[in-house]
Amino acid sequence: MPGTRSSRLTPATKMGLSIAIATGLYGISFGALSIAAGLNLWQTVALSALMFTGGSQFAFIGVISGGGAASAAFSAASLLGIRNAVYGMQIKQALRPRGRHVPWMAQVTIDESTAVSLGQAEVDEKRRGFFSAGVGVYVLWNFFTIAGALLGERMGDPAAWGLDGAAVAAFIGLLWPRLKAMEPVLIALAAAVVTAIAVPLTSPGLPILITATCAAVYALTTGRRSKPATEHGELQNVQEDRA
C-alpha cells in the first residue's frame, strides 16, 4: 500500500537507526584493538556477540593489553556492565515484555536502546525505539567488530601503528560526549585520581577494577534518582534531538 514504507519510519525508528549507525562504527576499533591485545578472531567475535556492551568490552581488552589477568579483565568489565541491570528494570516497567521476549530483549538492553525507548511518550514508539536502536546496534556492532578484527590481523605489530595506546583513546571517545554536566565531569576526575593512585601500588588490571568498583557502588546508590544516559550523551539531548 502507498505510504506503508514511510509510515514505518517513525521518529523513534529514525532516531534508533541513526544511533545504531553511529555506535556500530565503533566496532571497527574494538575488533582491531582486541586483536592487538592478543585475542584471536573468534574470541573477539564472542566478546561482541555475548558481552555486547562497548565500555565493558574496551575495559576488558584494556586490562588484557596492559598485562592484567583474564579474571581481573572480566571482573572490571562485569562491574562496568552493572548499569545494564538498572536499564533492564526500567525497560521491563515501560514495555512489559512477554516471557519469551525477555532473553533477547535483555541482550540488547544497552545505553542507546534504553535512552531512545524511554525518550518517547507513546508506548508503541517506546517499543520501536528500543527495537531499532537495540537490534540495530547489535547487528552493526558485531558486523564492524568482524571487519575490524580481520583488519587487525593484517596490520602486524600493533605498536608500529600506535594501537598499543588506542584502547584508551577509544574509551575516551565513548566517554567524552557524556561530560556535559558537572556530575559526570566530577565522576571522571575522581576515577582518574583513583586510577593514578592505584597504578603504582597494584598489579596490572587492578586499578581499573578498583575504579570500576567505586563507580558501581556510586551507580547503585544513586541509580533510582538518576536519569538514564547513553554513551553518546544524556537522555535529555536525545529528547531535544527528537523535537
Topology, please?
Elements (H helix, E strand, L loop, with lengths): L3 H5 L2 H14 L1 H11 L4 H11 L2 H12 L4 H11 L2 H13 L6 H6 L3 H8 L4 H31 L12 H10 L6 H17 L7 H17 L6 E2 L2 E2 H8 L1
Antiparallel strand pairs: 1-2
Helix pairs in contact: 2-9, 2-10, 3-4, 3-5, 3-10, 4-10, 5-6, 5-11, 6-13, 7-9, 9-10, 12-13
* SS-based class: mainly alpha
Poorly predicted residue ranges: 1-6, 228-243
Q: Give the topology string: H per helix, E per strand.
A: HHHHHHHHHHHHHEEH
Strand content: under 5%
Helical amount: over 70%
Can you count the helices? Answer: 14
Summary, kept brief:
The chain has 243 residues and is mainly alpha-helical. It is 72% helix and 2% strand.
Overview of this protein structure:
- This protein is globular.
- It has 14 helices and 2 strands.
- α5 (54-65) packs antiparallel against α6 (70-80) and α5 (54-65) packs antiparallel against α11.
- It is 72% helix and 2% strand.
- It starts with a helix and ends with a helix.
- The protein has 243 residues and is an all-alpha fold.
